[in-house]
Amino acid sequence: MQFGEIISAVGEIVDVAGVVAIVVGVLYAVVDAATRGLRRISPVYTRFRRVLGRAILLGLELLVAADIIKTVAVTPTLESVGVLAIIVLIRTFLSWSLELEISGRWPWQGRGAAPTSATGDDAPDEPAAGGTVAPAGPAR
């Protein structure tokens, strides 16, 4: 097996890993939301969106990496590099949009930046250091 074939196979494996990440993430988000809904654990919808968005982001990152690997594996032509550039631009835009939806801020904004959510439903879903979930209502 030659070097180009090995790199191409690695690209295919990373491609499959990206798709698997998205599918597993969607399944996990649906099961998590259903479980939280049945147990009446809040928030359901915002957590579902956040978990689903993270799965899609991970999958997109792996798919971009696979495209880069596969483009480098074959003899790069101006056309293949151009197509890769367009794919990376589209997927980067999608990643940024998802990041804004998930965290309420652009990827280049720091953690201290104010969330852009107008609904106020940006309460954390993950347990804090003490192991409890922060209340969703306004602080008193």
From TrEMBL:
Q: Which domain of life is it from?
A: Bacteria
Segments carrying the region annotation (Disordered) are 107-140
Please note every region of biased composition (Low complexity): 127-140
Q: Where are the transmembrane segments?
A: 6-31, 51-69, 81-98
Instruction: Recite the UniProt keywords alphabetically.
Output: Membrane, Transmembrane, Transmembrane helix
Q: Which InterPro entries match?
A: DUF1622
The answer on whether this UniProt entry bears the keyword Protease reads: no
- Can the keyword Transmembrane helix be found in this entry's annotation? yes
Q: What Pfam families does the entry give?
A: DUF1622
Name of the protein this chain belongs to: DUF1622 domain-containing protein
What's the source species for this entry? Agromyces sp. G08B096
